[in-house]
């Protein structure tokens, strides 16, 4: 799905982008935007709106539903197009490449720029929106929280945290952010989950990851979703990514979350390297996470 978004962007006229922006504007007030309001939101004549709606619907950038009125809403692809369009206008990216990964709530793809970068589209809220809408005849728009808002908040949050952590902590270098999308350094290496080490390496890598958890704590954050799927390993060391859910260290649960993070990674190493890495062992780690405090983890790393 993501792959052909770039092709779509290339085909669009400025008026198509106006129409999409108009639907986006309207979605601040309701999930399904009344067709009658689109000329105002999009700043296009009614005839132009008709023509553009047709083009955008054919490309699956918007969806139509007749409720008490004829309504339109952006699809995830339509929102992707708006973000890509903005990045291209800002010269952040020149083109879009292959997918790099599909997460639980994201799509990540390679983008071209002065160097290869990674673009992450946040999808938080979108799946729930789809599920709710399949069941309901029409939506009540009172107090609605649009998935656009939820996904955008997640991208803003992740970007903000990366800006604070980089370069003190080994995280992808943040480059730009717009709507639900975030552009960052493309990581070399492989996910920890698909890396294989010998004894010495396993212990070393485990320590490097703990070190980053401690450095992040010092910089003010606990990752809160640390696992073998959110760490990249390469010749140069480890990089911890996927930060939108991180919590500040003054948060009530920060200590408990840090402990859970460390336990997650320790459990992974124990399971995968039971004989090869005896040092990565329950007692050794238990000491570090005994009370989940920063000092105890730090003592463990030092
Ligand atoms: N900066 C990056 N460079 C290369 N690959 C990445 C980068 N960021 C994410 N990925 C890939 O995309 C996948 C999903 O990204 P992630 O940030 O973990 O999102 P999610 O919250 O959906 O898990 C990752 O598991 C990884 O394989
Ligand atoms: Mg992830």
Would you mind describing this structure in some detail?
This protein is α+β, with helices and mostly antiparallel strands. It folds into 2 domains: 2-185, Phosphorylase Kinase, domain 1 (2-Layer Sandwich), CATH 3.30.200; 190-301, Transferase(Phosphotransferase), domain 1, CATH 1.10.510.10. Helices cover 45% and strands 19% of the residues. The chain contains 11 helices and 13 strands. A 5-stranded antiparallel β-sheet has the order 4-5-6-8-7, sandwiched between helices. It has a 3-stranded antiparallel β-sheet with strand order 1-3-2. The chain starts with a helix and ends with a helix. The model has no long low-confidence stretch (mean pLDDT 88). The site of adenosine-5'-diphosphate has 19 residues, from strand 4, strand 5, strand 6 and strand 8.
């Amino acid at each position: 799905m993501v792959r052909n978004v770039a092709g779509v962007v290339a085909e669009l006229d400025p008026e198509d982008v106006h129409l999409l922006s108009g639907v986006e504007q309207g979605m601040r007030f309701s999930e399904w935007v009344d067709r009658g309001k689109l000329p105002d939101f999009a700043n296009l004549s009614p005839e132009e709106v008709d023509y553009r709606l047709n083009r955008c619907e054919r490309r699956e950038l918007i969806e139509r539903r007749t409720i008490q009125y004829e309504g339109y809403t952006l699809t995830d692809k339509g929102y992707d197009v708006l973000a890509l369009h903005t990045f291209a206008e800002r010269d952040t990216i020149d083109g879009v490449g292959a997918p790099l990964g599909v997460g639980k709530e994201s799509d990540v793809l390679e983008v071209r720029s002065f160097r290869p970068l990674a673009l992450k589209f946040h999808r938080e809220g979108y799946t729930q929106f789809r599920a709710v809408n399949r069941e309901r005849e029409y939506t009540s728009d009172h107090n609605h929280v649009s998935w656009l808002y939820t996904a955008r908040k997640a991208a803003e949050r992740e970007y903000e945290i990366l800006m604070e952590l980089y370069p003190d902590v080994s995280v992808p270098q943040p480059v730009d952010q717009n709507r639900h999308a975030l552009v960052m350094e493309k990581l070399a290496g492989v996910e920890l989950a698909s890396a294989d080490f010998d004894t010495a390496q396993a212990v070393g890598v485990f320590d490097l990851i703990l070190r980053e958890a401690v450095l992040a704590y010092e910089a003010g954050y606990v990752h809160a979703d640390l696992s073998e799927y959110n760490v990249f390993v390469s010749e140069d060391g480890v990089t911890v990514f996927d930060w939108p859910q991180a919590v500040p260290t003054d948060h009530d649960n920060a200590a408990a979350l840090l402990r859970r993070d460390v336990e997650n990674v320790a459990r992974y190493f124990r399971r995968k390297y039971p004989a090869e890495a005896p040092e990565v062992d329950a007692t050794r780690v238990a000491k570090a996470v005994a009370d989940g405090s920063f000092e105890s983890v730090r003592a463990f790393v030092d």
